[in-house]
Structure formats: C-alpha cells, structure tokens
Amino acid sequence: MASKNRVTEYKVPLSEQDRHPMMGESDINTILLNGAQIALTKLKRAQSFNARLYYYAEISVFLEVSLSRGAGISDSTRKQLEVIHKEATHIHMDANKLLNILEV
Q1: Tell me: the pLDDT tens digits for 19-77?
Q2: Is 91 left (phi over 0), alpha (psi -120 to 50) or beta?
Q3: Counting runs of H as helices and runs of E as strands, what totals does the chain give?
Q4: Beta strands in 1-104 (DSSP E)
C-alpha cells in the first residue's frame, strides 16, 4: 500500500487553498457590519468635526468594500451597510449644521 501525501489526496481548488481555513464567506459579512456599527456608534458620540469626519469616512470605506464582486459579500449586507451609511450621513450633516449655527 503506497502512502499518499495529504495535499495530493484531496484535490482542492487554488482559490480555496489560499483562503484561511477558519474564515467563511459569512465572516466577511459579519466583520463589515460589525465594523460599520462600531463606527456609527463612535460617530454618534464624537464631539469634534474631525472625529465625525473620520468615523463617517470609515463607514464609507465599509460600504465601498461591500461593492467588491466575488468577495462573498451578500446583497443583504450591502443593503444594511447602505442604511448605516445613510444614517451616518444624516448624523454628520446635522451636526455640521448645528455647528455652523452656533458659530454664527
């Protein structure tokens, strides 16, 4: 009986060989949504324009990444990120309006 190497015993496509074995497609969706939720929470608590701008940009990056095709990002994740981004936009713009009113 000839001994087989484990790599040759199972024919795994290259795309699966390069992936981390503990990370599935649902993980990237969870990471994006949790990251956006954390940034939204920090945006709500931010006291300065620069802090709000930073967290708003962070949420925008999560949304931008979700538009990547072939990354295993689901449509429901994209829709939820769009809702988070829309809420962040309103929070950021309302805070800027209030800041401009107080400065005048």
Answers
A1: 555 555 568 888 899 999 999 999 999 988 899 999 999 999 999 988 877 777 888 88
A2: alpha
A3: 5, 0
A4: none
Q: Residues with Cβ < 8 Å from 74, sequence gap 6 or more?
A: 25, 29
Report the C-alpha gap between 59 and 73 in whole angstroms. 16
Tokens 């994006």 belong to residue: 32
Domain boundaries, the chain: 24-103
Distance of CA 75 to the CA centre of its chain: 13
CA 43 to chain CA mean position, Å: 15
Does pLDDT of 4 surpass 70? no
Burial of 1 (0-12, 13-18, 19+ CB in 10 A): exposed
Query: Where is 30: in which H helix or E strand?
Result: helix 25-45
